[in-house]
Write a structure and sequence with these properties.
By secondary structure, the chain is an alpha/beta fold. The chain folds into 2 domains: 9-213, Spore Coat Polysaccharide Biosynthesis Protein SpsA, Chain A; 259-314, no CATH class. It has 13 helices and 9 strands. Strand 1 (9-15), helix 1 (19-30) and strand 2 form a beta-alpha-beta unit. The protein is globular, with a radius of gyration of 20 Å. It starts with 8 loop residues before the first strand and ends with a helix.
């Protein structure tokens, strides 16, 4: 397929050792219809077959542009991918997730129709590692804008998922794009700055499926993400009051991934969360996640209790 010289949408994704789920994600984007787009994927130093898979798909579809680089982490990979974007709009996508049919067309149409909006999200359905339905996040437009402008319950809150977003490229550039200071929570930092200028829209449909994995950033780096969210809130308040963000950006540079020695306990917490989501709807499957939590952290007594409860519930 021939690549259009000026696509309307640039979809940007980073991949790090995502070979097992990569093909399904690529297919969900490249099968999108009624939208002129390019798909920019940054292979962020993967040691698995991700690079080979990407090159094979790119050879078959000219809309896919692959950038190979040494590992820099998600934020810097996104900075590079967005710098390569040529579209009027930039859409995000995460490896392992899926864009449902019509996502790009409907979000682009919303931005095209009303220039009062700087970005558009949609509802997100969250699934487990084996496609188990966990929950759905549907944030109404008014609540999303309130969460970004004034905060909710003392915190600034963003859309249903980072990967659900499409934004105007000129606004992204004017706001300064993703900032390298934020190894995690780079999306919330960007959303609060974009919200300084215009409103966010929401397509009131589930158009994005996000996969939760106990080993993912959201599964293992929640404490660090929370710390950065607090710094983002402080930086946002300072900026909007006409003050300097420098002290908060400097502090953000010091927050990096958790040490490997603590990783197993964090993975246990991720398994526990997934099991908790499934406890009432599918207790037998929930029990397997509680068991995996115990395998990683035998002292997680809440997981032991939930495991036994789920085993009993699943036997009836």
């Amino acid at each position: 397929m021939t690549l259009h010289p000026s696509p309307e949408v640039s979809v940007v994704m980073s991949v790090y050792n995502g070979a097992s789920a990569l093909a399904a994600t690529l297919d969900s984007v490249l099968s999108q219809e009624d939208c002129d787009f390019e798909f920019i994927v940054v292979n962020d130093g993967s040691a698995d077959d991700s690079g080979r898979i990407l090159d094979e798909w790119a050879a078959r579809d000219g809309r896919l542009r692959v950038i190979h680089q040494t590992n820099t982490g998600l934020t810097r990979a996104l900075i590079r991918g967005c710098a390569e974007a040529r579209g009027e709009f930039i859409a995000r996508q995460d490896c392992g997730d899926a864009s449902l049919p019509g996502r790009l067309a409907q979000q682009a149409e919303r931005l095209r129709r009303d220039d009062a909006y700087v970005a558009v999200s949609c509802h997100t359905q969250f699934v487990g590692p084996r496609d188990e339905l966990l929950y759905q996040t549907a944030i109404e437009e008014a609540r999303l804008n309130e969460g970004l402008r004034r905060g909710l319950q003392g915190q600034f809150r963003g859309p249903s998922h980072h990967g659900s977003m499409m934004i105007r490229r000129d606004a992204y550039l004017a706001a300064g794009g993703y900032r390298a200071a934020f190894y995690f929570a780079q999306d919330l930092d960007l959303w609060t700055r974009l919200a300084d200028s215009k409103r966010f829209a929401v397509v009131q449909k589930v158009l994005y499926i996000a996969r939760l994995d106990p080993r993912s950033i959201s599964g293992t780096q929640t404490r660090e993400q929370s710390q950065l969210a607090d710094l983002i809130a402080s930086a946002t308040l300072a900026r909007r009051a006409g003050g300097s963000e420098d002290a908060f950006l400097s502090a953000a540079f010091g927050i990096r991934p958790v040490a490997r020695s603590d990783l197993k306990r964090r993975i246990a917490g991720g398994n526990y969360f997934i099991g908790s989501c499934l406890r009432k709807t599918n207790p037998s499957v929930a029990a397997t996640y509680f068991r995996q939590a115990l395998d990683n952290d035998p002292w997680l007594w809440s997981a032991r209790v939930r495991w036994l409860q789920s085993l009993l519930a699943g036997s009836f």
